[in-house]
Amino acid sequence: VQLVESGGGSVQAGGSLRLSCVMSGYTYRTNCMAWFRQAPGKEREAVAYIARGHGRTDYADSVKGRFTISQDRTKGMIYLQMDRLTPEDTAMYFCAGAPVTCSFTARHYTQWGQGTQVTVS
After folding, report:
1. How far is CA 116 from the centre of its chain?
2. Which of 23-32, 71-80, 85-94, 95-104 has the lowest mean pLDDT?
3. Biggest alpha carbon distance in the chain?
4. Percentage of residues in the chain with pLDDT exceeding 90?
5. CA angle 9, 78, 53 (to 5 degrees)
6. Which of 1, 12, 51, 89 has the highest local Cβ count within 10 Å?
7. Radius of gyration (C-alpha) of the chain in whole angstroms
8. Quick one: pLDDT band at residue 26, thresholds 50, 70, 90?
Protein backbone atom coordinates (compact mmCIF):
# COMPACT_ATOMS: atom_id res chain seq x y z
CA VAL A 1 0.00 0.00 0.00
CA GLN A 2 1.29 3.44 -0.92
CA LEU A 3 0.20 6.57 0.91
CA VAL A 4 0.54 10.14 -0.29
CA GLU A 5 -0.46 13.13 1.82
CA SER A 6 -1.40 16.60 0.68
CA GLY A 7 -3.08 19.74 1.97
CA GLY A 8 -0.49 21.08 4.37
CA GLY A 9 0.51 24.71 4.45
CA SER A 10 0.82 27.83 6.58
CA VAL A 11 -2.16 29.26 8.43
CA GLN A 12 -2.81 31.75 11.17
CA ALA A 13 -3.89 30.65 14.61
CA GLY A 14 -7.62 29.98 14.69
CA GLY A 15 -7.67 28.95 11.06
CA SER A 16 -8.40 25.63 9.40
CA LEU A 17 -6.73 23.16 7.07
CA ARG A 18 -7.85 19.91 5.51
CA LEU A 19 -5.27 17.20 4.95
CA SER A 20 -5.82 14.41 2.46
CA CYS A 21 -4.20 11.01 2.10
CA VAL A 22 -4.66 8.86 -0.97
CA MET A 23 -4.19 5.10 -0.69
CA SER A 24 -3.13 2.90 -3.57
CA GLY A 25 -2.13 -0.72 -3.96
CA TYR A 26 -3.55 -3.59 -1.90
CA THR A 27 -5.70 -1.38 0.30
CA TYR A 28 -7.87 -4.31 1.42
CA ARG A 29 -4.92 -5.34 3.62
CA THR A 30 -5.27 -2.16 5.68
CA ASN A 31 -7.74 -2.28 8.56
CA CYS A 32 -6.94 1.03 10.22
CA MET A 33 -5.80 4.43 9.01
CA ALA A 34 -4.36 7.14 11.20
CA TRP A 35 -2.79 10.54 11.23
CA PHE A 36 0.38 11.13 13.21
CA ARG A 37 2.43 14.27 13.61
CA GLN A 38 5.97 15.12 14.56
CA ALA A 39 7.30 18.51 15.56
CA PRO A 40 11.03 19.32 15.48
CA GLY A 41 12.79 17.81 18.47
CA LYS A 42 9.71 15.89 19.57
CA GLU A 43 8.55 12.32 19.26
CA ARG A 44 5.99 11.29 16.68
CA GLU A 45 2.51 11.35 18.22
CA ALA A 46 -0.81 10.00 17.13
CA VAL A 47 -3.52 12.49 16.25
CA ALA A 48 -6.49 10.36 15.20
CA TYR A 49 -7.42 7.03 13.68
CA ILE A 50 -10.34 5.51 11.81
CA ALA A 51 -11.21 1.86 11.41
CA ARG A 52 -11.88 1.42 7.71
CA GLY A 53 -14.54 -1.24 8.10
CA HIS A 54 -17.02 0.26 10.55
CA GLY A 55 -15.69 3.80 10.69
CA ARG A 56 -14.92 3.92 14.42
CA THR A 57 -12.73 6.89 15.26
CA ASP A 58 -10.66 8.10 18.16
CA TYR A 59 -8.64 11.22 18.82
CA ALA A 60 -5.74 12.39 20.94
CA ASP A 61 -6.93 14.57 23.81
CA SER A 62 -5.00 17.53 22.41
CA VAL A 63 -7.15 17.62 19.25
CA LYS A 64 -10.56 16.40 20.43
CA GLY A 65 -13.29 18.75 19.37
CA ARG A 66 -11.04 20.49 16.83
CA PHE A 67 -9.93 17.77 14.40
CA THR A 68 -12.10 15.32 12.45
CA ILE A 69 -10.85 12.22 10.64
CA SER A 70 -12.96 10.79 7.85
CA GLN A 71 -12.72 8.51 4.85
CA ASP A 72 -14.08 7.99 1.38
CA ARG A 73 -13.59 4.29 0.76
CA THR A 74 -14.76 4.53 -2.84
CA LYS A 75 -11.85 6.84 -3.57
CA GLY A 76 -9.32 5.35 -1.18
CA MET A 77 -9.06 8.67 0.63
CA ILE A 78 -8.49 9.59 4.27
CA TYR A 79 -9.01 13.15 5.45
CA LEU A 80 -8.12 15.20 8.50
CA GLN A 81 -10.14 18.37 8.96
CA MET A 82 -8.28 20.63 11.38
CA ASP A 83 -10.11 23.60 12.88
CA ARG A 84 -9.16 26.20 15.49
CA LEU A 85 -5.50 25.55 14.85
CA THR A 86 -2.90 26.74 17.34
CA PRO A 87 0.88 27.14 17.05
CA GLU A 88 1.19 23.91 19.06
CA ASP A 89 -0.29 22.07 16.07
CA THR A 90 2.74 22.97 13.95
CA ALA A 91 4.34 19.71 12.78
CA MET A 92 4.90 17.35 9.91
CA TYR A 93 1.72 15.31 9.53
CA PHE A 94 1.88 11.69 8.38
CA CYS A 95 -0.76 9.34 7.10
CA ALA A 96 -0.29 5.75 8.30
CA GLY A 97 -1.91 2.39 7.78
CA ALA A 98 -2.11 -0.66 10.02
CA PRO A 99 -3.05 -4.17 8.88
CA VAL A 100 -4.88 -5.15 12.05
CA THR A 101 -4.87 -2.94 15.14
CA CYS A 102 -6.27 0.53 15.51
CA SER A 103 -4.26 2.27 18.20
CA PHE A 104 -2.21 5.31 19.02
CA THR A 105 0.99 3.24 18.91
CA ALA A 106 3.18 4.03 15.92
CA ARG A 107 4.77 0.58 15.80
CA HIS A 108 1.38 -0.96 14.91
CA TYR A 109 1.45 0.96 11.63
CA THR A 110 3.44 -0.56 8.79
CA GLN A 111 2.51 1.82 5.98
CA TRP A 112 3.59 5.48 6.04
CA GLY A 113 3.38 8.44 3.74
CA GLN A 114 6.10 11.02 3.25
CA GLY A 115 4.35 13.69 5.31
CA THR A 116 2.94 17.14 4.74
CA GLN A 117 4.02 20.20 6.71
CA VAL A 118 1.55 22.24 8.75
CA THR A 119 2.71 25.56 10.17
CA VAL A 120 0.51 27.68 12.42
CA SER A 121 1.60 31.17 13.39
Report:
1. 10
2. 23-32
3. 39
4. 89
5. 160
6. 89
7. 13
8. confident
